[in-house]
């Protein structure tokens, strides 16, 4: 069975996937430059911050010439509670969106 935090993490992913706001969360649309990791280009497009959880919406683009299968563990830092990848298998030139939720370790800095 899920802990309350895990249940909240799943709810947050559902809200992010449907581009909905969530009570108690500040949502920021982000215009960060993409980062390259090998043939993959990752770009943070939205950031959800709540008292106990933080969520990130990440756009992933395959710039390579071969298909890539993304694993949730590839996108999950140590404190991650939930990850969802819209389309884990990326053909060359294709893009997908990933949703990553972790515990909010916010200590007042930005």
Mean pLDDT, to the nearest integer, reads 90
Biggest beta sheet summary: 6 strands, antiparallel
Q: How many alpha or pi helices?
A: 2
Q: Give the helices and strands as they follow along the chain.
A: HEEEEEHEEE
Overall strand count: 8
Bulk shape: globular
Q: In terms of per-residue confidence, which ranges show pLDDT below 50 for 5 or more consecutive residues?
A: none
Strand content: 35-45%
Report, as a whole number of angstroms, the end-to-end distance: 34 Å
Helix content: 10-25%
Q: Class by helix and strand content?
A: alpha+beta
Using the CA coordinates, give the radius of gyration: 14 Å
Short description:
This protein has 110 residues and is of the alpha+beta class. Helices cover 16% and strands 42% of the residues.
Structure overview:
The protein is α+β, with helices and mostly antiparallel strands and 110 residues long. The relative contact order is 0.22. The strands form two sheets. Strands 1, 2, 3, 4, 6 and 8 form a six-stranded antiparallel β-sheet that branches. It has a two-stranded antiparallel sheet with strand order 5-7. Strand 2 (35-37) and strand 3 (40-49) form a beta hairpin. It contains two helices and eight strands.
């Amino acid at each position: 069975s899920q802990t309350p935090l895990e249940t909240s993490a799943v709810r947050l992913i559902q809200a992010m996937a449907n581009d909905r706001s969530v009570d108690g969360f500040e949502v920021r649309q982000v215009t960060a430059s993409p980062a390259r990791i090998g043939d993959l280009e990752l770009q943070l497009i939205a950031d959800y911050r709540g008292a106990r959880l933080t969520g990130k919406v990440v756009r992933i683009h395959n710039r390579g010439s071969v298909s890539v299968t993304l694993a949730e563990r590839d996108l999950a830092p140590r404190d991650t509670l939930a990850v969802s990848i819209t389309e884990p298998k990326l053909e060359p030139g294709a893009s997908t969106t990933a949703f990553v939720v972790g515990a909010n370790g916010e200590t007042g800095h930005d």
